[in-house]
Design brief:
One of its GO terms (biological process) is carbohydrate derivative metabolic process. Helix content is 40%, strand content 14%. The protein is of the alpha/beta class. It has two domains: 89 residues, no CATH class; 161 residues, Glycogen Phosphorylase B (Rossmann fold). The two termini are 27 Å apart.
């Protein structure tokens, strides 16, 4: 790596790895290198207990950080106030036309003919898909289906919960889907239930597809996407019981599938806007 940097002499270096601290410390010149933060720093450095040999000031002291959301940067500043004052937020870029084009691809008859709520995420513990199942089970509309896209270690527990709730005839585990856009476009709404995110891609993609969304208001990401009137579809999870979260999520899903319109300005996430930010 050192030889490559010496030969290539890049003007700027953006490292997208929050974990390999020694790589940052030994190889990347501080005046030209930024660490791109894709996840909640509290989740990465505190909850996951990421190990490090030297004090964090050795890795991040006066290091410029670029975050994918304002919430991520705020957490990083609170956790490591010694990062560079030049740290900033630059959102991930989204090609709206490409998303819409991919959403027009063919889809099977079931998803064309049925009304359904959709979840698109890994089936990992932190994604809290069980909240969606619990909230869905409370809906009075028994014609509505729930389609869960994704794979992960929680799959068996989630399937057992579906059986325990007696809703197995209305819930489909679709597994990994390479292009979820058509499934999003045909859905009544998309629901995200995570405890932690960086900038949740699926919320933006669903809105670009014209599909309403409901999301937990985890500290980083969703509130920067669901602004203005869409704030009503953010579910408070901090200092809130799980039963209250599920009821609030049920209410938001019920309200959303009956209103169907969610006009929102997503221009700051467009490819053109983000490229302009990088250039400046």
């Amino acid at each position: 790596m050192k030889d490559f940097l010496s030969d290539f002499k890049p003007d700027k270096i953006a490292s997208h790895n929050m974990y390999y601290f020694l790589e940052h410390y030994f190889f990347y010149p501080k005046d030209r290198m930024s660490v791109v933060l894709h996840n909640s720093p509290n989740e990465v450095f505190i909850n996951r207990g990421v190990k490090h040999l030297l004090p964090m000031t050795a890795y991040f002291g006066q290091r410029k950080c670029i975050s994918v959301s304002e919430g991520v940067l705020d957490e990083m500043k609170a956790l490591m106030p010694f990062i560079s004052a030049d740290s900033r937020t630059i959102y991930n870029p989204f090609d709206f036309e490409e998303i819409r084009k991919r959403s027009e691809e063919s889809i099977d008859k079931f998803h064309q003919d049925n009304r359904y709520v959709i979840s698109v995420s890994s089936l990992a513990r932190g994604k809290r898909v069980e909240r969606i199942i619990e909230a869905f089970s409370l809906l009075e509309d028994k014609e509505l289906k729930l389609c869960i896209l994704g794979v992960g270690e929680e799959e068996k527990k989630l399937k057992d919960l579906v059986i325990a709730k007696g809703i197995q005839e209305r819930v489909r585990f679709e597994g990994f889907i390479e292009n979820p856009m058509p499934y999003m476009r045909h859905a009544e709404c998309l629901v995200l239930a995570s405890d932690s995110e960086g900038l949740p891609t699926v919320l933006i993609e669903a809105l670009v597809c014209g599909t309403p969304v409901v999301s937990t208001n985890c500290k980083t990401g969703p509130s920067e996407i669901l602004t203005a009137h869409l704030k009503n579809n953010l579910i408070t999870i901090e200092n809130t019981s799980e039963s209250a979260i599920v009821i609030d999520m049920h209410d938001a899903i019920h309200r959303t599938i009956n209103q169907k319109t969610q006009n929102v300005n997503l221009n700051k996430f467009s490819r053109e806007a983000v490229i302009s930010t990088w250039e400046n």
